[in-house]
Amino acid sequence: MALVSGGNRGLGLEIARRLVREGYRVVIGSRDQARGEEAVREVGEGATACQLDVTDPESIEACVSTIEKQFGRLDVLVNNAGIEGGGWSTSATDVGLDDVRDTLETNLFGAWNLTQAALPLMRKNDYGRIVNLSSGMGQLSDMGGHAPAYRISKTGLNALTRMLTAELAGENILVNSCCPGWVRTDMGGPGARRSVEEGGDTPFWLATLPDEGPRGGFFRDREPIPW
Predict the structure, then answer these.
(1) Who's near 103: CB < 8 A, 6+ residues apart?
(2) Is 150 one of the annotated active-site residues of the chain?
(3) Which of 51, 125, 182, 199 could, after both became Cys, cross-link 192 (CB 3.0–4.6 A)?
């Protein structure tokens, strides 16, 4: 049983599609229920839609509660929902901090809140795979300028991955971050180098790791990359 936030389009939709093909029952989380239902029709049998706004704690609680009532378990959480935040051309020297806060609400706090809500269901069955969709733009080892709201939100998401990994060390719940690369989505634009199929491969792999799989890592193309 898997939940993919922002699963109605782009990378989220591709990840949902691959998980269904693998035999998972997948809940597609979407802020707009109608768009979620449209995605379900595209993915086909094995998928269902749930209204999910990761910036709204009540929406998160309602979605996870629905999963518990209908399925009784949650094995995989893909924290895919995210926004660009303030624009790529903004700089740390003059970005509006309200834009930064809004970006953190979705890209970091939204994933954090949703993970907290999902963990009790994972612990109930002693099994969990949490995949945080991060970005190379959040790497401290290669930090540059511009897009500061987006960058810092992904750096924070990577830190969350490490904290959760330390706290869940004795449990069969694997938490990892991944960078899908520059992908041709609504956010990435038509000039991006990668297809959604290429971008969706690593998060799919992390979502389906065996018990002895890696935990607390940052990956691109199924290979570790620096933080």
Answers:
(1) 83, 84, 85, 86, 149, 150, 152, 153
(2) yes
(3) 182
Q: For residue 107, give both structure tokens.
A: 């890209």
Instruction: Determine the 3-state secondary structure of 216 from DSSP.
Output: coil
State the catalytic residue, choosing from 24, 109, 150, 204: 150
Closest by Cα among 90, 43, 68, 199 to 135: 199
Q: Alpha-carbon Rg of the chain, whole angstroms?
A: 16
162-196 tens-digit pLDDT:
999 999 999 999 999 999 976 666 676 777 677 77
Q: For residue range 91-119, what is the model confidence (pLDDT) as tens digits?
A: 999 999 999 999 999 999 999 999 999 99
- Name, in order, each residue with C-beta under 8 angstroms of 76's C-beta and a sequence gap of 6 or more: 1, 2, 3, 19, 24, 128, 129, 130, 131, 207, 208
pTM: predicted TM-score of the whole model, two decimal places: 0.96
Report the 3 state secondary structure along 51-114: ECCCCCHHHHHHHHHHHHHHHCCCCEEEECCCCCCCCCCCCCCCCCHHHHHHHHHHHHHHHHHH
